[in-house]
Amino acid sequence: MALFRRALTSVSVGPTRRSVRDLRLGETGTVCCLEDPEMALKLLEMGCVPGVQVRLSGRAPLGDPLMLVLGDQEYTLSVRASEAATILLKE
Which of 21, 75, 76, 86 is deepest in the core (most CB within 10 A)? Predict the structure, then answer.
């Protein structure tokens, strides 16, 4: 399983991967990989590791930041929408 996924410069024909930013309030997903290598270290240190369950528990009135609950320990994390877009989910 690849930890990082490079963004393609060409337009892809297939379906796009869902990210944490695409979750609806209360919806859960499982982290697949992190798209941005520069942001990855910060997200890994905060607990966004592949295989962990993520639930969107809140969204600020203007949509940014997002409040996430990670794993079974109910660890709460706030991230910017741009950061959440780099956390890809398993299908």
Answer: 86
Q: How far apart are CA 91 and CA 88, in angstroms?
A: 9
User: What average pLDDT does the chain have?
Assistant: 84
Q: Which of 47, 51, 39, 45 is nearest to 4 (CA)?
A: 39
Strand partners, 68: 56, 77
The pLDDT value recorded for residue 57 is 94
User: Where along the chain do its domains lie?
Assistant: 20-89
* Rounded Cα–Cα distance for residues 22 and 85 (Å): 8
What is the distance between the alpha carbons of residues 88 and 36, in angstroms, rounded to a whole number?
10
Architecture of domain 20-89: Roll (2.30)
pTM above 0.90, yes or no: no
